[in-house]
TrEMBL record:
Protein name: 2-phosphoxylose phosphatase 1
UniProt-listed InterPro entries: His_Pase_clade-2 (IPR000560), His_PPase_superfam (IPR029033), Histidine_acid_phosphatase (IPR050645)
Any GO MF annotation of the entry: phosphatase activity
Protein source organism: Panagrellus redivivus (Microworm)
Keyword Cell wall biogenesis/degradation belongs to the record: no
PANTHER family documented for this protein: 2,3-BISPHOSPHOGLYCERATE 3-PHOSPHATASE, ACID PHOSPHATASE-RELATED
Length: 458
């Protein structure tokens, strides 16, 4: 059975570190946390750092900005025993959350924040202490408050945030992305309410921000299923690389009493959302405890599996191309807008998921090695105008791309020349409009992909 195969992979990963690490370091209730958890959990005591808005020279002006972020910490998506308490861990964060809750109840804030009718029934802030499957935690909301605050201070002097700037804030249709968007808006836009008397949170239709009929079709869901099949086949190949361990797999899977995972990433998800990020002791089975080193290895194994499947699975590449298209297209639209009217400025915010960021990371060719993207991860597109152009310049608009504060511009797959470390915007427009879909899907448009998939299903 296919599900069994997936379980085998998960179990394999578990077994692998169980045997090869043998460390009983299961308590996280100490002053420091292991690097892997600091990375994945984004604990609130860690500072947000990043090079957003940091361009090498003063003669670049920021005209366009797109920020796609993952929601903050949430409980696991799958049921696995009793969930821990979700109260913020540190006193200072409990107080911050109380302050945040009060803010969301203020009339000034609720008038400032215009909410799409789709979200009308959703509370602005998550529960203070109750964990529930797939829901944002109090710390998760605070992560986005912290991120919005950091990015506002980075961008406030950049020139892109003024009263004429067109702001478009889209939110994927989930409670956790909505509450994350509210948190981000409270610290990024609300302090600038003199410039922006109101911010509208619009509900997107999909996790990849396709809101029109021309960027998706029912066949795309079919692609997702094919990808899962491919993934399972690749998982089988993956298992064969560890032949010595295969006999132990079934036994361990049974002992671990984990819910059946549909995808190895779900294992990581449970370990983080239920234990590591809640600072709970890691679980033990028959005297053997999950170790932090083990989780690091599991994450590494999962990451290399994802990378391998992307290079081998055409359905996944096609799916990722389709899912990258709306955000890339919107950045290209921003660039086109500025070309038409030099004075225009745009800010696009996308409140999404790890599965929003991952397709973009792959299609842009960023060298990201750790998956999934941690909570509150951000992918940022900055569009700059060069103010002292010379006739030899390849373009007068430039793109800069950052992931979690790290400048990845020089690794953009489609960019062959760079000016002051920036990518000429016309290279990006060409990629986004006419190269990306053919390169990864073999078709020129989403509708052609849909036609192909229809034919292949007959
Ligand atoms: C998430 O939280 C809301 C209330 O904040 C609750 O209505 C909903 O049932 C929760 N989701 C789950 C899966 O428990
Ligand atoms: C899809 O339609 C929207 C609205 O009509 C338009 O802005 C967008 O550029 C279209 N996208 C494609 C790929 O044609
Ligand atoms: C990707 O990044 C890793 C470190 O994160 C580095 O070791 C590796 O050389 C990089 N590879 C490429 C092709 O840039
Ligand atoms: C970009 O690629 C180079 C190698 O081509 C690598 O050394 C560098 O680490 C990459 N940058 C990032 C941010 O991964």
């Amino acid at each position: 059975m296919k599900r069994n195969r997936i379980l085998l992979v998960v179990a394999l990963v578990l077994i692998y570190w169980w045997f090869f690490t043998g460390n009983d370091d299961s308590s996280l209730n100490k002053a420091y946390a292991p690097a892997i958890f600091i990375y994945f959990c984004q604990y609130l005591e860690e500072l947000v750092i990043g090079n957003e808005a940091k361009v090498p020279k003063a003669d670049y002006k920021l005209k366009g900005l797109a920020i796609a972020f993952r929601h903050g910490e949430r409980s696991p998506l799958i049921e696995n025993g009793v969930l821990p308490d979700c109260t913020a861990y540190h006193d200072v964060d409990r107080r911050s959350f109380s302050d945040y809750e009060s803010l969301t109840e203020q009339v000034e804030f609720t008038q400032f924040l215009q909410v799409d009718p789709y979200f009308k029934k959703v509370e602005l802030a998550p529960q203070r202490s109750k964990c529930s499957i797939g829901n944002l935690t109090a710390e998760g909301a605070l992560q986005l408050v912290k991120l919005g605050d950091f990015l506002r201070t980075q961008y406030v002097e950049s020139g892109v945030l003024d009263a004429s700037t067109v702001v478009d804030f889209q939110v994927s249709p989930y409670r956790r992305t909505f509450q994350s968007a509210v948190a981000f808006a409270s610290s990024f836009f609300f302090p600038l309410r003199q410039l922006y008397p109101e911010i509208i949170l619009q509900a997107a239709k999909t996790t990849y921000f396709c809101n029109e009929d021309n960027c998706t079709c029912p066949q795309i869901e079919g692609l997702r299923k094919v990808f899962h099949q491919d993934f399972q086949e690749r998982s089988a190949i993956y298992i064969r690389r560890y032949p010595d361990l295969s006999t132990e797999l079934q036994a361990f899977a049974k002992a671990s009493k984990m819910a059946p995972f549909k995808h190895p990433l779900e294992f990581i998800d449970v370990v983080l959302g239920q234990y590591a990020c809640r600072r709970q002791p890691l679980p033990c089975f028959e005297g053997k405890c999950i170790s932090t080193e083990g989780i690091a290895e599991a994450s590494e194994a999962v990451s290399s599996l994802v990378r391998e499947v992307f290079s081998l699975s055409k359905p996944l590449r096609t799916l990722y191309a389709v899912e990258s298209y709306p955000i890339l297209n919107s950045v290209a639209n921003t660039i086109a807008e500025i070309r038409k009217d030099r004075t225009s400025k745009r800010v696009n915010i996308f409140s999404g998921h790890d599965i929003t960021l991952m397709p973009l990371e792959f299609t842009l060719g960023l060298n990201i090695t750790a998956f999934p993207p941690p909570y509150a991860s951000r992918l940022v597109f900055e569009v700059y105008e060069k103010t002292d152009q010379t006739t030899s310049d390849v373009d007068w608009l430039f793109l800069r791309v950052l992931y979690n504060g790290v400048d990845h511009t020089t690794n953009l797959s489609f960019c062959k020349t760079f000016v002051d470390g920036l990518c000429p915007a016309n290279a990006f427009e060409k990629f986004a409009r006419s190269e990306m879909l053919p390169t990864f899907s073999g078709e020129a448009s989403v509708s052609a992909i849909c036609e192909r998939e229809k034919r292949s299903n007959i």
